[in-house]
Specification:
The chain is mostly helical. The chain is built from five helices and no strands.
């Protein structure tokens, strides 16, 4: 038994993968509920743009789980996301979309 880190073992991956993937997708569902909330619609100039973030979240989380299954995740997931170039690009995209959705009014539907 290890006293360093979170004390997960390799055999724990069979349980952690489905739990992690399920939690990741549940977070996107919760974000969708946030987008649809009346308070969000009032606060954002173009709240529909936030759906681009939901798509980016699904892509990003899927990418992280695939990298984990390939054995490429050697750090804490937060540290990995901070240092990973792909994650940095996705997070930057989400920040830009959030700012645009908040302040720029775009008529998306006729």
């Amino acid at each position: 038994m290890s006293t360093y880190g979170r004390d997960y073992r390799v055999e724990d991956l069979r349980v952690l993968w489905p739990l992690g993937i399920g939690s990741a997708l549940a977070a996107v569902v919760m974000f969708g509920l946030f987008i649809s909330a009346p308070e969000t619609i009032i606060r954002y100039a173009t709240p529909e743009m936030l759906w681009l973030i939901a798509i980016a979240l699904i892509y990003w989380q899927s990418r992280l789980w695939i990298m984990t299954s390939r054995g490429q995740m050697h750090d804490d997931p937060v540290i990995f996301a901070i240092t990973d170039k792909g994650s940095q690009v996705i997070v930057l995209f989400m920040i830009v979309v959030t700012i645009m959705a908040r302040f720029i009014s775009i008529k998306l539907l006729p």
